[in-house]
Design goal:
Blueprint (H helix, E strand, L loop, with lengths): L4 E5 L3 E6 L3 E5 L1 H9 L15 E2 L5 E6 L2 E7 L5 E6 L1
Antiparallel strand pairs: 1-2, 2-3, 4-5, 5-6, 6-7
Length: 85
């Protein structure tokens, strides 16, 4: 797209490329959520860096141009995704 380029690999792994941030991996449930949101055309934009372990609780977060996608464990032990813009 005009925003960047997406390379797709086996197992739901992706590399999103933009001139601003270079190639950034998008994997697992965060990748699924991002793709459901539109991928390269999503409102959160392209990833700025690789996912990181959550600072609070269990799970992962990933920074995007216009927001954050998280995959976190709630109080009941269930993992769920969230998109913050």
């Amino acid at each position: 797209s005009d925003e960047g380029t997406l390379a797709t690999f086996e197992g739901g792994k992706y590399l999103a490329y933009s001139e601003e941030t270079g190639a950034q991996p998008v994997i697992g449930k965060i990748a699924e959520t991002w793709k459901e949101q539109g991928g390269l055309d999503s409102e959160v934009g392209l990833p700025k860096a690789a996912e990181e372990k959550a600072t609070e609780g269990k799970g992962w977060t990933q920074q995007f141009d216009n927001g954050v996608i998280s995959w976190l464990q709630d109080e009941s032990g269930k993992f769920t995704s969230s998109v913050e813009k």
